[in-house]
TrEMBL record, chain A:
It comes from the Bacteria. This is NADH-quinone oxidoreductase subunit N. Pfam families: Proton_antipo_M. It is found in: Cell membrane; Endomembrane system; Membrane. The gene is nuoN2. Belongs to the complex I subunit 2 family. It comes from Blastomonas aquatica. Its main location: membrane. Keywords: Cell membrane, Membrane, NAD, Quinone, Translocase, Transmembrane, Transmembrane helix, Transport, Ubiquinone.
From TrEMBL, chain B:
The gene is nuoJ. This is NADH-quinone oxidoreductase subunit J. It is found in: Cell membrane. It is a multi-pass membrane protein. Keywords: Cell membrane, Membrane, NAD, Quinone, Transmembrane, Transmembrane helix. It comes from Blastomonas aquatica. Residues 177-204 are annotated as: Disordered. The chain crosses the membrane at residues 6-24, 31-50, 56-78, 90-112, 145-166. Belongs to the complex I subunit 6 family.
Length: 487, 204
């Protein structure tokens, strides 16, 4: 029992929790007038937590990671890298929100605070090495997310999105809990290491059911097919800054959590979960590619795009090798940059009265009215499609490379074929922007913060991003190695 | 001897009050019978040494859930006579469901007795064998699981913040009592001296 060390290991979450409680007091005393101050302080708290996580990621002393709180929480390089990604996306989502909500006078101090608490939950998720930590982290994140989805309570679509997300999320939590109780019943422990030990001499039928139910519950949280149905509706209905948040930070957390559960807890019995992951990955890639073709709403299109991308990332997990995990983390980093960029571009699409524009046909001729924005959006679309000079190609390349190395050649071939289908709808958006007659509905931007964020993410996914691989690949390899340390 | 007597007392009262819960004509009486059933079930739990569950039953079910039921029954205008009219119609379905549940129960216990299910071994802590349930649960909750316990507190806090954020609003057009302004009011602001002329009526 070394509480000083434990608090130090959990410091990112502790800093965020204390900041959240204090900001809640500020918000309670000065109501919505303080929304701006609370947002600024939230970003400051996030930067503090980010610095702490970066320290764990880069300092030499934590190569193996360390457990805290009686083996319920682990801080290693994998958790630290995931946390860095989560906090960066959360910062972006707090920064872009005030301009969006100000139009309806709905910018309230609760928005940054809920993002803060959701991030505490996500930090717990990626550090979880016990089923109980996993569940509490997941619930903390989900509960805040349900509220955020219906944050524009005067808007029917937002309320519908929140309700839908809540009901289906509760169902998924039930499935997950059922699986966890089966695992506990048949292995006698909730810790990942304990489950791994119990699995070392075979998996009983009951425990197998547990594995399937746990993976189904997690597949819901990462919106992988066949548990993806909520994604387009929730992404379309939720306010755009919240959608940006949903598509980035919770995705990172849930994917990292899935990796840790699969590799650490079920690692000894790879054949048990590998076929499930392969099926989910294939189905997500195909459905995400095909169903997006008919969409005319750009937020729905991006929702299907995120389903599609989750499929590609799961290929990395399906390999079950450190190379696969490292490829998955690389893809995840690039995915966050592409998704943040494209959603902030969507946030910048407003008509002359300041109303958000989400219809793709209304983007016609954007290249002539807003050439910069059109170019940025084109960069993100090309990158999401995985077209070579851009950084999105690198993510797909490393994932397929790992799949081929692990002998999953049919899966890799199918992924490559499906990415061609996917390219069609990304290119359709670009065609509308560049070759159609100008519809002239989009007004000039009114926010430099948004433009700066778009520029940064566009620069990262541009071919210049390949310079970052020099720094990134040792980090992702370290993270993957940390994940396999116990396995 | 006293234990056997207590068991039959609690058990028969549970069954009787359970029956009265569904047979009582007045829905408020139904809820009161339900509360009696909860209390006696708590007594049964104490008999088998599960005093923590007994306390939970009284605090959570009687203290919160049953009182909530009572509020719902008394506040909402539900026509219970009409609801009861569906009883005969739904009786076959109810009986069929009851038969399925019974069969599952028998099947489950039978399968477990047959020894075909191998559950995981879970080590009991021999040092804690003599302690009461409440002591054992409390010690674990506030030492080994203290981190998760605090985080579960955050989950509840988020639920509370969320409920307020989504439903609390400033209502326009309501005129709440402002005691300060009432006290501050002077006679000059509220009264006027008038000189009504005879035969002209009064001006209001």
């Amino acid at each position: 029992m070394n509480y000083a060390l434990w608090f130090q290991l959990a410091s990112p979450e502790i800093v965020l929790s204390i900041a959240g409680l204090l900001l809640l007091l500020i918000a309670a005393w000065s109501s919505d007038k303080s929304a701006r101050l609370v947002s600024i302080l939230t970003v400051a708290a996030f930067f503090g937590a980010l610095a702490l996580s970066l320290n764990f990621l880069l300092a030499d002393g934590y190569a193996e990671g360390a457990d805290a709180f009686y083996g319920q929480y682990r801080m290693d390089r994998f958790a630290a890298l995931s946390k860095v990604l989560i906090f960066l996306s959360a910062i972006a989502c707090v920064i872009v929100a005030p301009k969006f909500f100000a139009r309806d006078g709905m910018m309230r101090a609760e928005y940054p605070i809920l993002i803060l608490f959701a991030s505490v939950g996500m930090g717990l998720m990626v550090s979880a090495v016990d089923l109980l930590t996993l569940y509490i982290g997941l619930e903390l994140q989900s509960l805040a997310a349900y509220v955020l989805a219906s944050f524009l309570r005067s808007d029917d679509r937002s309320a519908e999105a929140g309700l839908k997300y809540f009901v289906l999320g509760a169902l998924a939590s039930g499935i997950l809990l059922f699986g966890m109780s089966l695992l506990y019943g048949f292995t006698g422990t909730t810790s990942f290491i304990g489950i791994q030990t119990a699995f070392s001499d075979g998996v009983s039928t009951g425990a197998l059911f547990g594995v399937v139910f746990v993976l189904s519950g997690l597949a819901f949280k990462i919106s992988a097919v066949p548990f993806h149905m909520w994604t387009p509706d929730v992404y379309e209905g939720a306010p755009t800054p919240v959608t940006t948040f949903f598509a980035t930070a919770p995705k990172v957390a849930a994917l990292a959590l899935t990796m840790r559960v699969a590799i650490e807890a079920f690692g000894g019995q790879q054949s048990v979960w590998q076929q499930i992951v392969i099926f989910v990955a294939m189905a997500s890639i195909l459905l995400g590619g095909v169903a997006a073709i008919g969409q005319t709403n750009i937020k729905r299109l991006l929702a299907y795009s995120s389903i599609n991308n989750v499929g590609f990332m799961l290929i990395g997990l399906a390999c079950g090798t450190p190379e696969g995990a490292s490829a998955m983390m690389t893809y995840l980093i690039i995915y966050v940059a592409m998704t943040l960029g494209s959603f902030i571009c969507v946030l910048d699409l407003n008509d002359r009265e300041g109303r958000p524009v989400e219809d793709i046909p209304k983007l016609a001729g954007l290249s002539r009215t807003r050439p910069g924005l059109a170019a940025a959006l084109a960069v993100f679309m090309f990158s999401l499609a995985g077209i070579p000079p851009l950084f999105g190609f690198w993510g797909k390349f490393v994932v397929f490379d790992a799949a081929v190395a692990a002998g999953l050649i049919p899966l890799a071939a199918l992924g490559i074929a499906a990415s061609v289908i996917g390219a069609f709808y990304y290119l359709k958006v670009i065609k509308v922007m560049y070759f159609d007659e100008p519809a002239d509905v989009i007004a000039p931007s009114d926010s430099t913060a948004r433009l700066a964020l778009i520029a940064v993410s566009a620069l990262f996914v541009s071919p210049l991003g390949y310079f970052a691989t020099l720094a990134l690949s040792p980090i992702t390899e370290d993270a993957a190695r940390a994940l396999f340390w116990a396995a | 001897m006293i234990q056997i007597f207590a068991f039959y007392l609690f058990a028969s009262v549970v069954i009787a009050s359970g029956a009265f819960t569904i047979l009582a004509r007045n829905p408020v009486h139904s809820v009161l019978w339900l509360i009696l059933a909860f209390f006696n079930a708590a007594g049964l739990m104490i008999l088998i040494g599960a005093e923590f569950i007994a306390m939970l039953l009284v605090i959570v079910y009687v203290g919160a859930v049953a009182v909530l039921f009572l509020f719902v029954v008394m506040m909402l205008d539900i026509d219970f006579a009409e609801l009861r009219g569906g009883f005969m119609k739904n009786l076959p379905l109810g009986l069929a469901l009851a038969a399925v549940f019974l069969a599952e129960l028998v099947f489950g216990i039978g399968a477990y007795r047959a020894g075909n299910i191998e559950l995981g071994e879970h080590a009991l802590n021999p040092a804690r064998m003599g302690a009461s349930n409440i002591q054992a649960v409390g010690e674990l909750l506030y030492t080994r699981y203290v981190f998760l316990f605090e985080m579960a507190g955050l989950v509840l806090l988020v639920a509370m913040v969320g409920a307020i954020a989504l439903t609390h609003r400033k209502r326009a057009g309501v005129r709440p009592q402002n005691i300060g302004s009432q006290v501050r009011r002077r006679p000059e602001e509220a009264t006027r001296n008038m000189q009504p002329v005879v035969g002209e009526g009064v001006e209001l």
